[in-house]
Amino acid sequence: MPKRKLDPLPSAAFQILLALAGEDLHGYGIMRQVAEQTESRMRLGPGTLYSSIQTLLEAKLIEELDQREDAKLGQERRRYYRLTSGGRKLARSEAERLADLLRVARARKILRGDYV
Amino acid sequence: MSEKIYACLLRLFPSHFREAYGDEVLQLFRDRTRDEKGFFPRVRLWLDLLADLAISLPRQYHYVRPALTGAAVQQRLQGAPAFFVLTEESPGSAALILGSGLSMIALSLFSILLGHAGNHRPLSASVYQRGHATDSRRSTLGHATGQAPGDAKDVITNASRMKPGEAKPNDSQSKALLPPDSSRFPEALPPQLQDVAQRERLMNAVIDNLKKHYVDPEVARKTGDALLAHKKNGDDDKATDGGAFANLLTKQIRDVSHDMHLEVVYSQQPLPDLLPEPTAADLARYRKALEQDNCTFKKVEILPHNIGYLKLNAFPDPSVCWATATAAMASLNHADAIIFDLRDNRGGYSSMVSLISAYLFDHPEYMYDPRESPTPHSWTPSPVAGNRLADKPVYILTSRSTVSAAEQFCYDLKILKRVTLVGETTRGSAHAGVFHRIDDHFGMGIPEALPVNPFSKTDWEGTGVEPDVKVKAAEALETAQKLAEDKLQKK
User: Fold this and answer.
1) Does some domain include residue A64?
2) ipTM of the shown complex
């Protein structure tokens, strides 16, 4: 199931993997990070966020850490998530796939620019 | 307030999701409401949440936990059906009470339905209503498989001779038509006999039926008086159950009337109630079945020495089988002798008996049928145009299974000295009475017509028709062929 759900990788799941690539985050942290890295184009709602987290956990692309507080957000204990090596690998291959697409797009003169 | 609303909306998610992430979802909601203050951010927040619900709810309900799918695949591989628990929550007490209540209702309904099903009589009993009577409702029981449903002459074979053990395999249907034999349920004590008043009511019904339907009113009156006298003497008290009481009444009736066809029948199973006349569809089905069976004309061929051979397994309804019968006889028209093989013949219509017999005479002959008063069909429609068989030697093969109308064919043609019977003594089923239902367990057979036998004082009831040449049924054909060949050579 998870394999089918993640192939192709949904953009929400890819964004979560990217968000966790930098540091371990709790749910709200992931949401804010995704909003930041997409310049607020993607705001993950709670249902979408935790559905994706559930799928990624089952595919062992991320893992759950012990609960702890986030000093900036008060006393509440929060569940943190971390990218696994499998998750990192998948995120990289997805990025490479997109880079290939980008190259094609440039070759077809759909996109201008010289980086990548 | 808004958190409460969102908590309510959260209940739309499946329980497994709420259990795993419910708290965190609410926490995230709180984080956002804390950080996104002001009118527009709050509107945007709610729009986000509603859009999120619309997207993620269906996804969650399509979600199947891998543990379950894994188990399902494994189970299916083993070929066994499997059930899965999709939620670990135990059902609420209200749901449990409702569920047990519904189960109880379903169970009791099921048992009630089962109880009613016990009274249902299968249609295969082929019991059809004929007319109405005031006190005893009247049904008829056909006793030969060749008869059309509902079109059969009202007959019931003499049940006293038709013990189950005697029934032949090919007579299974006629066995099914008989009321279950009382001797099989000796311990049964039907409710009718539990008090004297019920027993009296039963006897009065028997007497009423006799007076109303029996062919000889004087005998009916005498018989009724005798039954009352027996009751007065306390002769009936020794009957301990329904079967014994029915047998006792039968004996008392026969002692006075000397008519062996009068009888009282007891059935532990409820006797069939009035059933509707067969529909056009029933009749069409019956016709089709007969036609598919070539009207039971199993074999029509010319044997060596130009002996015609016809194997006939019933005497089917001429209104359906006239063409088949005349074609079969026409194809044997040039034979020098005829062998009718009736060893597996289970009877049927006396009108077919007359139709086939017509080819054996050059003038009309009366075909005596103990079951009915003479009708135009009782005479053979002889001579048949173009027929050459009227003076040819005829042999009939018989067995112990040859029954009913087939016995009429044998009996009449033998008495008319037109045929030679080869084989075994026939079954011996001649008489019939109309069956009158008295109540759920009792009924009686009453002959309503006693045609005069022009040939003899007795017929084949109980004794069967004796063959002229007694051989085993299996050897009958060979013997008849030899007899025919000898006879033809002498010519």
Assistant:
1) yes
2) 0.87
